[in-house]
């Protein structure tokens, strides 16, 4: 929402529309104590940043098998997830 409102200079109404029609339907995992604890466990185990660890924890909770990221190591296996860099040739 920060990018939409500040960089793209969307009106509050346009930002709300984007939230309602594009972002909210993508929500599959809600923040919970367990999610944050799993993120901290992943951070400790793999030495990722906390936010990368939280993304991985959410992907695991959602049942994902592939996580697309240009920031993590391509081909790395984290539990049942394989990291894939979508920009790698």
Produce a short descriptive summary:
The model has no long low-confidence stretch (mean pLDDT 93). The protein is 49% helix and 10% strand. The protein is built from 4 helices and 3 strands.
What distinguishing features does this structure have?
mainly alpha; globular; 89 residues; 4 helices; 3-stranded mixed beta sheet; 2 domains
Describe this structure in words.
With 89 residues, this protein is mostly helical. It folds into two domains: 30 residues, no CATH class; 59 residues, no CATH class. It is 49% helix and 10% strand. It contains four helices and three strands, in the order ααααβββ. The chain has a three-stranded mixed sheet with strand order 1-3-2, with helices on one face. The longest helix has 14 residues. It is globular. The mean pLDDT is 93.
Which helices and strands, and how do they pair?
Blueprint: H1 2-7, H2 12-23, H3 33-46, H4 50-61, E1 66-68, E2 77-78, E3 81-84
Parallel strand pairs: 1-3
Antiparallel strand pairs: 2-3
Helix pairs in contact: 3-4
Helix-residue proportion: 40-55%
Share in β-strands:
5-15%
* Structural class based on helices, strands and sheet pairing: mainly alpha
Summed over residues and divided by their number, the pLDDT gives a mean of 93
Number of domains: 2
Q: Give the CA-CA distance, first to last residue.
A: 31 Å
Number of strands: 3
Principal-axis shape equals globular
The value of Rg in angstroms is 15 Å
* Element order: H for helix, E for strand: HHHHEEE
pLDDT < 50 runs, ≥5 residues: none
**Largest beta sheet: strand ordering:** 1-3-2
Q: How many distinct helices?
A: 4
């Amino acid at each position: 929402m920060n990018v939409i409102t500040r960089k793209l200079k969307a009106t509050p109404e346009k930002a709300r529309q984007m939230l309602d029609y594009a972002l909210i339907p993508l929500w599959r995992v809600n923040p919970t104590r367990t999610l944050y604890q799993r993120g901290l466990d992943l951070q400790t185990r793999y030495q990722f940043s906390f936010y990368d660890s939280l993304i991985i924890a959410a992907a695991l909770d959602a049942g994902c098998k592939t996580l697309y990221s240009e920031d993590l190591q391509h081909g790395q296996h984290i539990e049942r997830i394989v990291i894939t860099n979508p920009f790698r040739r």
